[in-house]
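Entry 12.
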Amino acid sequence: MAEPGGGRPVTLSDVQQLVRRKDEIEAQIKACYELLEGQKGVGMHGPLVDAEDFPRADIDLYQVRTARHNIICLQNDHKAVMKQVEEALHQLHAREKEKHAKDEAEALAEARSQNQSLPQAFARVNAVTPGSPASVSGLQVDDEIVEFGSVNVNNFQNLQNIATVVQHSEGRPLSVTVIRGGRRVHVGLTPKRWAGKGLLG
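Predicted 3D structure (tokens):
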């Protein structure tokens, strides 16, 4: 089998293939050992000659020799495959780590660029009365106000500024810009008399 990582990145299926190969080799080694056990339990190191140095007649010498030879070869193959599995897993983990780091860096860069491009808010909406002009226009609690008609962070002094703009704009649409969930949102707001208090609610 080709060494993983020969020119192309290792995939999970490469690792699975190697693990299957490892399992096959282990099964073959087990079969060889069972064969040796079947030959009077001669194993890997049992003598193949009798007390008088004649080949043993009670075992199949050819089978024993072949099985022993196969075990040695298969153990070498097993060692090589284990090394390949280890290297492949190492490459997979390294790539996963690299990808994770890259994703994090990209997310961070995106968040930074968004933060830089978002204007500064000067007030936050802490309540919106249902059915009020503010509610009808789509203003939401926790919206951060960036522009309210002509009022922005550069000329805002206190909430009286907004009240003044509202009084002068009764019945006329006002352009309101808010930051909601990290994004800039434009809301068209028309201050007017309604069942509740004030022109906005």
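Annotation: The chain has a mean pLDDT of 86. The chain has two domains: 12-115, 123-189.
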